[in-house]
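so my prof wants the structure for this chain in the C-alpha cells format not the other one, which i didnt know existed until like an hour ago. anyway here's the sequence
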Amino acid sequence: MKTGKRKTEHLDICLKEEVQFRQKTTGLEWIDLNYESLPEISLNEVDLSTRFLGKNFSAPLMVSAMTGGTPKAKKINRDIAIACQRLGIGMGVGSQRAMLEDPALRETYYVRDIAPEIFLAGNIGVSQLKEYSPRQIAWALDEIGADALCVHVNAVQEAMQFEGDTDFRGGISAIKKLALLLKKPVIVKEVGHGISGTVARKLAKTGIKAIDVQGAGGTSWAGIDSLRGKSELGAVFWDFGVPTAVSIVECRNAFNGKIIGSGGIRTGIDVAKALLLGADLCGIALPVLKAQVKGGSKGVEKYLRQIIEETRLAFYLTGAKNIKDLKKTN
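here's what i got, hopefully its the right format
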C-alpha cells in the first residue's frame, strides 16, 4: 500500500538523515526567562499539572503525532504510550488515513489497552476531509479510543511529495464542517512549518478547540520529503515557515482556544519559554522517536522524565509554583 510505504520511508529518513532546519531556528533562543536568584519557593512546591481539553496532565507535555499505518509503527506507538501512561502526559498518533484505507492497520495505532488514561489524539490530513465523511473519521477515532482529532495542514510538505496533494481549496470550510459535526474536539496542527496569525484568525471562526503551531526550527518535513523524492525544491524550501516562537505569539493573539507550542522543543527551558509566550501545552516528536529506537519504552520514559524535570527546575528558577505563576513572569 502506498500510504504505508510512505510512512516507512518517512521513519527511515528521520532516523538516518539530518532532517532538522538548517539555518532558521525556533526563535526561542531570543526569549529569556526572568531568573529569580531568590525564588522564595521550594523546588518541591512546583506543580506542573494542567488540564487540557478535559484531560488531566501531570506536566504540560505531550508526544506529538509521528506514525501509524505501517508494521514498524506498532511498537513505536506502544512504547511511547507506555511511557506516557507512566508519566501522566499525552500523545498523538500519525495520520489515520492508512487505517481508513485498510481497517486491518488499526492495530498499528491502538494503545488503549496499555495506556487507558492518557490524552490520545487521532490524526487526519485536511486533504482527506474531501475523501472521508465525518462519520468515517469518527469511526477511526472511536476504534483507537481517541479523545480528540488533530487535522494536519501541511501545504509545504505536500508540495515536496511527488504524489502530494497541492489542492487545498475549501480547507477552512471542511474544518468548520467537521468541527461542527464531530462530537470530539478538533485540533488543527501544522507538521513543522508553523501557523501564522492570518491562518489562526481564519481558524478562530471554525469552532475548533485548539491549534498546534508545529513551528519552524525543529524537524523540516519539506526536507524529509525532498530527500525522499530526491527533489531539488528541498534546498530552497527546507527552512520555509513561521518560527515556533513567532507562531505561538501570533496564534495566541488571534485565537481564544488552546495553543500547543511545538516545533523544535528540545529542553525544559524551551517548554517554559513556550508556555510564557502563550502556549497551554508543548509537544515533542523527533527526539522521542530517537529515544524509542535506542531504548524502547524505558528510553522514551527516561528522555521525557528528563524534560519534565528540566521544566520543573525552570519554573523554580523563575519563582513560579505553577503555570499560572509562570505566565505572570516577564
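also thought this was worth mentioning. The mean pLDDT is 95.
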